[in-house]
Specification:
Bound molecules: adenosine-5'-triphosphate
Number of strands: 20
Radius of gyration: 24 Å
Shape: globular
Strand content: 25-35%
Structural class: alpha/beta
Largest sheet: 6 strands, mixed
CATH architecture of the largest domain: 3-Layer(aba) Sandwich
CATH superfamily of the largest domain: P-loop containing nucleotide triphosphate hydrolases
Number of helices: 17
Helix content: 25-40%
Number of domains: 2
Length: about 500
C-alpha cells in the first residue's frame, strides 16, 4: 500500500459549471489522496470530462475552489495546471507524426527547461524516466511508426517531463488492445508507487476494479458516491452510475437467416505505397444475422468497413449489396449504397459520423437530407428536422435532448448515440457498424446492444466490427477473425471461446 500522506493531492470544493442551459457540473466536492489511483466513472454526459477539464484549466469553473497539495490555486489555463504539477493525457493524441519521440518530447516541454538544455538533456531525462517507471520507448523512433499504445506512452512521458505529479487520463484504454491496456496499468501502478497521483476516467468497470484504489461515481453533474475499490463491486458501481439495476448481456432468439444481402469476393486493397491492407477477403452476411469481425485494431477492419461503405475503392474483388454488384476500381459512392439500403456507423464518429459544427438536428439527417420529408421542394424544412431530431433523441435517450446544440457540445457517448440513432432509424437492409459502444456507458451499451439485435430480428444483415471481444461474443451469430488484412478464422457465435479467438487474433491456432 502507498504511504498515507496528510495533505491531499487534490481537493475540489463546490465546483460548479454550466454551458448555457446545461448544468454540467453541480457543486462537486472531492478529495484525492497523494500516490493513489482514483477512478472517475459515470454515464455519458455525467460531467466527468468537464470536471477534469476544469482541474486542468481547459474550462473555468463558474464557482468553487481548487486546492493542489493544500494550496488554493486558480486554473486559468493548462499552463497554470502544468505549473502546479498537473498533466492530462487526452484520448486524441497531440503528437507530430513525422517527428521522432525525442523531438516531440522537447516540443512538448516548450518554454521549459528541456528546450534550453537541448536534446542531450531530454535524452537523459527520458532514460531516467524509463528506469524509474518502466516507460520504455525508443527515443529515435518516428511517431508514425509507433503503435497506439507506444504513442500513448510518449504522451505520458511528455506530461511527466513537464514535471507532473498528478496525471489525468481520459479513457486511456478506449484505443488500446487488451495487452496494451495491461501494460498501461502496470505502468500506472509503478507511477503510483513512485508517489504520482493518477485520475482515470473510464467506462470499463473491470478496469476500475483491477487498477484503482478508490472510485467516484458521477451522475447528472453530481458526485453521487465515493467508494474504496475493495469495498465495492462492478454491479454496485453500475447501479450507482445509472440509477437502476443494469443487466449486461442480451437475450437473443436463434438467427432466422434470410438471403445473403452483403457479399464480398476476393476483396483487396493496396494503398498508394503498395502496402496490402486487405487481401482476398471473402464474406457473406445474410438478412437476420449479425456477423462479428474480431481482431486487434489495425488489421484491416477499418479499411474493410470503408470499402464496403463506398468510401474507398477496392483494388481487387467485388462487393454485392442487395443484389447489386460493384467491381474493383468503382470509385465508390456512399449515397448510391445508402439508396440500396446500406447504413454505416463509422468507427471514427468525430471525423466520419458527424460534423462537429453542425447542430444535432443537422447531424441527425446527415446523408439523408434529400429525403422528401426533410427537404420538400429541395429546401430543408428546419422545423420538421428539429421535430424529427427531438423524437430520435427521446427514443435513443440522447442527452441533453436539445436539437439546437452543436454536435461537438455533446459528450462522446451521446455523439455516438446520435449517429447510431440516425443510421438504425432508417431501418436499413444492411448495417455496417464499427465500435458501436466505444466510449459509451454501461446503460447505453445495454440499450445499443438491444437495438442491434432488434435490427437483426427485423431482417437486417449486420456486419459488426469491434475490438471488444465481449461485445463480439454477446452479439454475433457468426464470428470472423481478421489478422493482417486476411480473414484467418471463423467460428459459430454461440460456441466461440474468448481464448480461441484471442489466439486466432494473434495469428496462432488454438490448441
Ligand atoms: N463545450 C460545451 N458546450 C456545451 N455543453 C457542453 C460542452 N462540453 C460538455 N457539455 C455538456 O456538459 C455535459 C457533461 O459533459 P461531459 O463531456 O463532461 O460528460 P462525460 O461524463 O465526460 O461524458 P462521456 O462519458 O460521454 O465522455 C453534457 O451534457 C455535455 O453535453
Amino acid at each position: 500500500m502507498p504511504a498515507m500522506t496528510a495533505v491531499p493531492a487534490i481537493e475540489l470544493r463546490a465546483i460548479d459549471k454550466s454551458f448555457g442551459d446545461v448544468h454540467a457540473v453541480r457543486a462537486v466536492s472531492l478529495t484525492i489522496r497523494k500516490g493513489s489511483i482514483t477512478g472517475l466513472v459515470g454515464e455519458n454526459g455525467a460531467g466527468k470530462s468537464t470536471l477534469m477539464s476544469i482541474l486542468y484549466g481547459l474550462y473555468r469553473a463558474d464557482s468553487g475552489e481548487i486546492r493542489v497539495e493544500g494550496e488554493r490555486v486558480e486554473m486559468g489555463s493548462p499552463r497554470d495546471a502544468i505549473a502546479h504539477g498537473i498533466g492530462m493525457v487526452h484520448q486524441h493524441f497531440m503528437l507530430i507524426d513525422s517527428f521522432t519521440v525525442l523531438e516531440n518530447l522537447v516540443l512538448g516541454a516548450e518554454g521549459g527547461f528541456l528546450l534550453g538544455r537541448g536534446m542531450a538533456a531530454a535524452r537523459s531525462e527520458v532514460a531516467r524516466l524509463e528506469r524509474e517507471y518502466g516507460l520504455s520507448i525508443d527515443p529515435d523512433a518516428r511517431i508514425a511508426d509507433l503503435s497506439v499504445g507506444e504513442q500513448q506512452r510518449v504522451e505520458i512521458l511528455k506530461v511527466l517531463l513537464r514535471g507532473a505529479r498528478i496525471l489525468i487520463l481520459d479513457e486511456p484504454s478506449a484505443v488500446l488492445t487488451p495487452q496494451e491496456t495491461e501494460r498501461l496499468f502496470r505502468i500506472l501502478g509503478v507511477l503510483r508507487d513512485g508517489g504520482v497521483t493518477v485520475i482515470l476516467i473510464t467506462h470499463k468497470l473491470r478496469e476500475v476494479m483491477a487498477v484503482t484504489d478508490q472510485v467516484f461515481v458521477m451522475r447528472q453533474g453530481e458526485v453521487v458516491a465515493e467508494r474504496r475499490t475493495v469495498d465495492t463491486t462492478p454491479d454496485e458501481l453500475a447501479e450507482l452510475m445509472v440509477g437502476r439495476k443494469v443487466r449486461l448481456g442480451v437475450d437473443r432468439q436463434p438467427a432466422r437467416r434470410g438471403p445473403a444481402l452483403l457479399r464480398a469476393e476476393g476483396l483487396s486493397l493496396v494503398d498508394r505505397h503498395g502496402i496490402g491492407l486487405l487481401d482476398g477477403i471473402d464474406l457473406e452476411v445474410h438478412g437476420g444475422e449479425i456477423v462479428g469481425i474480431a481482431g486487434v485494431s489495425g488489421n484491416g477492419q477499418t479499411e474493410l468497413l470503408q470499402v464496403l461503405a463506398g468510401m474507398r475503392a477496392p483494388t481487387g474483388g467485388t462487393i454485392t449489396i442487395c443484389g447489386r454488384t460493384f467491381d474493383a476500381g468503382h470509385p465508390g459512392d456512399p449515397a448510391e449504397r445508402r439508396a440500396l439500403g446500406l447504413a454505416h456507423v463509422p468507427e471514427d464518429r468525430l471525423r466520419q459520423g458527424l460534423v462537429a459544427a453542425f447542430h444535432a438536428s443537422e447531424t441527425s439527417i446527415l446523408g439523408y437530407q434529400n429525403e422528401a420529408r426533410f427537404s420538400p421542394h429541395h429546401l430543408i424544412d428546419r422545423p420538421a428536422v428539429r421535430t424529427y431530431c427531438a423524437e430520435l433523441m427521446q427514443r435513443f435517450d440522447v442527452r441533453p435532448p436539445l436539437p439546437g446544440l452543436r454536435s461537438a457540445q455533446f459528450s462522446g457517448g451521446n455523439q455516438q448515440k446520435l449517429v447510431l440513432a440516425r443510421e438504425i432509424s432508417h431501418e436499413p437492409k444492411v448495417l455496417l457498424v464499427g465500435q458501436p459502444t466505444r466510449g459509451v456507458d454501461i446503460g447505453a451499451i445495454e440499450f445499443i446492444h438491444r437495438e442491434l439485435v432488434r435490427c437483426r430480428d427485423r431482417g437486417c444483415a449486420i456486419l459488426l466490427v469491434s475490438v471488444e471481444l465481449d461485445e463480439i461474443l454477446a452479439l454475433s451469430d457468426r464470428i470472423l477473425v481478421m489478422s493482417s488484412g486476411h480473414i484467418v478464422g471463423e467460428s459459430a457465435g454461440g460456441t466461440a471461446s474468448e481464448r480461441a479467438l484471442g489466439l486466432m487474433m494473434a495469428g496462432m491456432k488454438a490448441a
